[in-house]
Amino acid sequence: xxxxxxFDRKAVRRHRDRAATTVDRVADVLRDAAERLLDRLDDTNxxxxxxxxVGGRGVVAPMLRQRGLQVVSCDLxxxxxxxxxxxxxxxxxxxxxxxPNSFDLIVASLSLxxxxxxPGALLQLRQALRPEGLLLASLPxxxxxxxxxxxxxxxxxEITGGASPRVSPFPELRDCAHLLQRAGFALPVADMEExxxxxxxxxxxxxxxxxxxxxxxxxxxxxxxxxxxxFPAALARLPIETERVAVTLRMAxxxxxxxxx
Length: 261
What we know:
The protein is built from nine helices and eight strands.
């Protein structure tokens, strides 16, 4: 069973607890991603009243309240959950505490990619929706931070002769709609949004990942500190765009409806 677990969920919680004091640093990026996701609400005539915000890091809940919705928030990290205002609960996305038919809208903005059992989590989210309720979710998709992944792998292999996984594996876009369908959603759709991030200081990229709680939580990660030479060598390999280091967030945007009665 443990061999099927990709992520260290205790590490994910620690990273998010730590990031609760720093996440404001990346609020603009998180808000941009959430706005692109919530734009899908404008494409439907359905009006929603009760929303669940999953892992919104203090950004999504206020945006939903501005739309006139009653919002409950949850996060794996108690400290991060507290940023969302009340009501909010600390809850594991793999073991959600919500009763069936609790919400007519669920929003999970860039918050499900450290889940080991993603199909199971999506199934629980569907069960928490009322008939004809809507799930809006986004995930970093394959190609996200590919520039950093390649640079780290090449630099570590050159310096140490081997490489440890340092960037999370991400799903392919074509798999995302299938995951929704497998979880019992109707009319599953997955499309791509791409956000290009530019940094004058490449070290700021690593600082932002840490500030967002997105540092390495892969179970097979190296448990010893890497050579100090690896990160400078990797950052020097990143592509330059308009005199800035450039990396890409490829965001799979998933929409699915709970079946009607």
